[in-house]
Amino acid sequence: MNRTEEFQELRPLLFSLAYRILGEVGEAEDTVQETWLRYAAATTEPRSVKAFLSTTVTRLAIDVLRSARVRRERYAGPWLPEPLLADPYEDPARAAELADSVSMAALLLLERLSPLERAVFVLREVFDFGFPEVAEAVSRSEPACRQLALRARRHMSEGRPRFAADRREREELSSRFFDALREGDVAALQGLLAADVSMVGDGGGKAPRLARAVAGAKHVARLLDLAFSRTARLGVTWEPREVNGAPGAIVRDRDGRVLKALALDVLDGRIQAVRLVVNPDKLRHLGPVGDAWAIDREARRRPRE
């Protein structure tokens, strides 16, 4: 097997590592590409190709994340990860960990960690790397990595719900959610939402978004119904899809261009959070992006039927 074939075989793992560390699809793809360039230029053959590539992509991702932290501090409005429709890496033995770690909720919790804590947590807890491999990847001693992993686990466990919904429960609830939206049944929609549900939008100053997070089942249900009914008359469609391993949708204009991605957090038989990614820069990897501003202006001009 030549270097190109070896790299392509490990590419899904490398992207999945980089995406979880960075929370951005474009940055993850760029980091994987830089990893390939360094591997292709290496003058000696590494003892372990997997170890070499994993170490390289991790170190590059840590550097990118450190600079990204500065940008995110200046970000206009709430920041959400870039939506991921399909994780290219599969491991049946760690399917649950992989699915949980790519959710919007988990990625937002990872944002609370330092870049080193985040990298160690992803390598150790998500992908089950041994501490010698983790230490090599982050250029720290094994005892230091164990401490980093301990702190990261503590922070993550403090923010996670105690009980997660199974896949069948989430699918059934999301199906009822989108049925209620299409039918304009606000009461049914409200009944699917947790009493303290929150809805947040990420426009990055480049697309219409919520002025602030909306909380409470009554307010969120009414706002969702209003948004759906107004835009549906303009040919906008809500295409149910799995987004970051959870129920969600891709919203498209009449020409099929992407306007937003929606992800739902489900727990205890209710939707706990609705997250909307509207920033066009975060949607380009999903296909051609529509003009959300134009849709918003037209929707506001038309009276509600």
Structure description:
The chain is α+β, with helices and mostly antiparallel strands. It has two domains: 157 residues, PhyR, sigma-like (SL) domain (Butyryl-CoA Dehydrogenase, subunit A, domain 3); 135 residues, Roll (Nuclear Transport Factor 2, Chain: A). 54% of the residues lie in helices and 14% in strands. It contains twelve helices and six strands. The longest helix has 25 residues. The radius of gyration is 21 Å and the shape is globular. The termini are far apart. The mean pLDDT is 93. Interacts transiently with the RNA polymerase catalytic core formed by RpoA, RpoB, RpoC and RpoZ (2 alpha, 1 beta, 1 beta' and 1 omega subunit) to form the RNA polymerase holoenzyme that can initiate transcription. This is RNA polymerase sigma-70 factor. InterPro entries: ECF_Sigma-70_Domain, NTF2-like_dom_sf, RNA_pol_sigma-70_dom, RNA_pol_sigma-70_ECF, RNA_pol_sigma70_r2, RNA_pol_sigma70_r4_t2, RNA_pol_sigma_r2, RNA_pol_sigma_r3/r4-like. Keywords: Sigma factor, Transcription, Transcription regulation.
Relevant CATH superfamily of the largest domain: PhyR, sigma-like (SL) domain
Low-confidence stretches: none
Biggest β-sheet description = 6 strands, mixed
Strand order of the largest sheet: 2-1-6-5-4-3
In short:
The protein is of the alpha+beta class and 305 residues long. The protein has twelve helices and six strands. Pfam families: Sigma70_r2, Sigma70_r4_2.
